[in-house]
Amino acid sequence: MKPFALYGDHIWMDTDSALQLMPESFGICDGSGRCAGVFKTLPRAFEGISVRDLRGHLIVPGYIDLHTHAAQYRNIGLGMDHQLIDWLSDLTYPEEARFADPAFARTVYGRFAAELKAGFTTRAVIFASAHTEATSILAELMEETGLISYIGRVNMDRSAPDYIREPDAASAVAETARWLEAESGRHARTHPILTPRFIPSCTPDLLEGLACLREQYRLPVQSHLDEQPEEIEWVRELCPESVSYAAAYDRYGFLSGRSVMAHCIYMTDDEIGLMKERSTFIAHCPGSNANVRSGIAPIRRYLGEGLSVGLGTDISGGSSLDMADAVRDALAASRLLWRLSDDHPKHLSAQECFSLATAGGGAFFGRVGRFEPGYEFDAVAVDDTRWAWPGDDLSTRFEKFIYNARSGDVKAKYAAGTQIL
Fold this sequence. Notes:
seven-stranded mixed beta sheet, four-stranded parallel beta sheet, alpha/beta, 13 helices, about 425 residues
């Protein structure tokens, strides 16, 4: 890769969590796909490199989608009057069962991958379905986009209909191992992630088998945690030996700095302490939490406790794959919680939600989500002429960007220095 620069109006959160505004500047990608910094003029060491002129465009770090379900893409907007468990049984499981057909999977996943490619997302952590061939198709299509992703074959051997549930724990573990072997070394930018759907769908034997695979293949983990009170009570009944839902995962080694747990709305003090101790990432999915009537996660508290938090679209609980919507949903949810709760601290700011979407989720992938030297060069150029006015300074344009941007405003995109758009 040769070094290059993007010329435009750069905005990012620095390592001190301060908003950086650099109008008419050069963001430089070095020859390794990492950021060399943002400068008003090209440094002598980079004189003569290729410059892409994005004059008048906002240039921001790519957004990171920490939690979404590709196999639910066709169901966006359906079943929002259902409670979680009924929503799974009545709509989600029947839809995911259709991915047993590879042709169906290729059609749906093709549209899913194309929408991700066109929008703000440069990296994503994705649930597929319980079908090995379909999951491999999704990985193939995501690799073609140039985006960077983790993709998981879903595991479930209880609490689901026969047509979607795996026969037994041994079969599920064996099939997941077969998928991992098939994917080994196959892609450069698309990686496997261990995916127990959630504790109620996995027997202890399955969880133990997956724990062995995690050790053998050194895998990250994704699942769901503390989404709804009824689910938490269900886990309490299934796992009486564990003091909490989080502890039930931790028993199998599934909480670590390479783990993402979606939702985390109702965590106890003990769970917060455990998640912090294990450095586990929280995927905050405010759109889904509103649609499926789960609740509002106290993200301000989690950040204050030093937990690692990013944002997720969580389709089809969420109704949009556009991460710009996730940022606005996070803002709205925090403000509602602040208004409705006497003891909740101040709501999140636009800058903080922007940080969750970039550096917050980016940390799961390493040094990602900032235009700081040594960070991987993920960048999105945005045409803001639809809402900006002559005389608006860059601070004003940033605020309007948060509230107005849509995927269609994206005009250029890079992930680890590779041009996507």
